[in-house]
Design the sequence.
């Protein structure tokens, strides 16, 4: 398939999938709707990032909408996952320890409520017809084909190889458990590779599916490690604040609430808990998350050590095989 024809087809399909999820989340902002819209936005942006520079009418403006939506729904989804995780720990700890954890959970629920209002406003004020018309005005414009990459499969080889090498830049550093920033960046690199493999799977008669599954597993493991790192850091901060004996330690949080009723609830919940109970619950949750983080990281290193060499060689063999 010619590269320009393939580019338009991929971007059209990705946009239609994105539009379906946009309309779904407009109707109701459920947990699954936010997650599915986030994934659809990421897949569309992956295609835009690969192909848009080659279109004659390429500018950043028509695609700014997708970046904004990705940021909004990304934060909301992260909060949803965190809230689910914290709530799941409550039955595993004592009544005394639950006090601090419930207070911590309430913070996240208030943040999620605030983000939900932002999403509702963004979706209600967005003109989907204008977004669609602007998007297709760009991708229907002439495309500048790179001479040495005349067809979609040839184009995909270069893109996949670049994304693959980006993952392996972290091969050494990812084996050090406290390299949190590097592990997070590796997760992003794996995610980008996965979306590119999904995009070009049809060019290789679905032979990329096992590699997509491996990327998904790595992404899940690295994502769990990152979630644990973020929560542990937040718990350390909360423990530090809880060690103070005056209400002003909680004022930054109280300022985030939207109504007088919410403020009263926050102040009331602060006063009814003894501080040692609050700290006990936060310390318990932090210890649980640190233990989980250790085990998840161990599983990741074991999996990566087993698959890393063969994964790279086999994938490069498939994409460099010119047999259709």
Sequence:
């Amino acid at each position: 398939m010619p590269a320009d024809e393939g580019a338009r087809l991929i971007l059209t399909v990705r946009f239609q999938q994105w539009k379906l999820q946009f309309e779904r989340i407009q109707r109701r902002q459920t947990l699954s709707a936010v997650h599915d819209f986030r994934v659809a936005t990421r897949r569309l942006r992956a295609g835009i990032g690969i192909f848009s520079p080659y279109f004659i009418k390429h500018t950043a403006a028509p695609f700014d909408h997708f970046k904004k939506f990705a940021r909004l729904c990304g934060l909301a989804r992260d909060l949803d996952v965190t809230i689910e995780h914290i709530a799941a720990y409550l039955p595993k700890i004592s009544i005394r320890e639950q006090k601090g954890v419930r207070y911590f959970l309430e913070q996240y629920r208030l943040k999620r409520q605030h983000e939900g209002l932002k999403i509702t406003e963004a979706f209600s004020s967005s003109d989907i017809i204008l977004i669609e018309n602007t998007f297709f005005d760009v991708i229907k414009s002439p495309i500048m084909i790179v001479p040495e990459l005349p067809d979609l499969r040839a184009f995909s080889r270069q893109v996949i190889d670049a994304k693959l090498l980006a993952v392996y830049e972290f091969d050494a550093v990812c084996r050090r458990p406290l390299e949190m920033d590097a592990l997070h960046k590796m997760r992003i690199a794996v995610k980008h590779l996965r979306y590119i493999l999904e995009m070009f799977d049809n060019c290789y008669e679905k032979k990329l599916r096992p590699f997509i599954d491996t990327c998904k597993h790595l992404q899940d493991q690295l994502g769990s490690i990152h979630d644990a790192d973020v929560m542990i850091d937040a718990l350390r901060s909360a423990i530090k604040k809880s060690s103070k004996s005056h209400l002003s330690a909680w004022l930054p949080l109280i300022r985030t609430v939207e109504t007088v009723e919410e403020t009263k609830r926050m102040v009331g919940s602060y006063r009814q808990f003894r501080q040692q109970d609050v700290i006990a619950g936060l310390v318990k949750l932090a210890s649980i998350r640190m233990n989980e983080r250790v085990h998840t990281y161990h599983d990741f290193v074991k999996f990566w050590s087993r698959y890393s060499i063969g994964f790279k060689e086999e994938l490069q063999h498939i994409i460099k095989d010119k047999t259709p």
Observations:
- DSSP finds eleven helices and no strands in the chain.
- Residues 1-145 form a domain with the CHAD domain fold (CATH 1.40.20.10).
- Confidence is low (pLDDT under 50) at residues 245-260.
- The two ends are 11 Å apart (CA to CA).
